[in-house]
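Comment thread on ticket #2218

A.B. wrote:
> Attaching the input chain for the structure job we discussed in standup.
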Amino acid sequence: MRWKVNSERSLYTDEWLDVRLADVELPDGRHLGHRLIHAPSGAGAVVLDERRVLMLWRHRFITDSWGWEIPAGRIEPGEQPIAAAGREVEEETGWRPGPLRPLLYVQPSNGISTAADHIFRADAATQVGPPADVHESERIDWIPLSRVRPLIDARQIVCGTTIASLLYVLSAP
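C.D. wrote:
> Ran it. Output below, let me know if you need it in another format.
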């Protein structure tokens, strides 16, 4: 069943998001006022080195939680997703990824947001210096892939895009 959007109006807008109220018509004819968030797309990468993955240990103030995440961030206007992924890895970790190839496209909160993440994979990286922004993470480390599932179980990996990306890598033949 497809819901029909009759109209939308902005409730709040800035450079990062546009919160809107949509008049949605349900298949039975009823109307629903539904909030939604238009947000820019992101890009990131699963960077592998043998049987390890490059990750950031960071605090998310919104949920007041700590967790491991893959490097990822916003795609700048006019930037291609693959370029954004490479830039984000280098800025956040100080490692330049080897050749990137598409891994996964994910809409992490498609019930409320238009945000989408383009995730790439690199099978090597070269350390080029310290991270550009020291406030991105508490630490950067190469985590053995064998620890990914236990870290998810222990709620030390909770970011939906990170979980989807890592489980996708682990499930590959």
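A.B. wrote:
> Thanks. Noting for the ticket: The longest strand covers residues 4-13.
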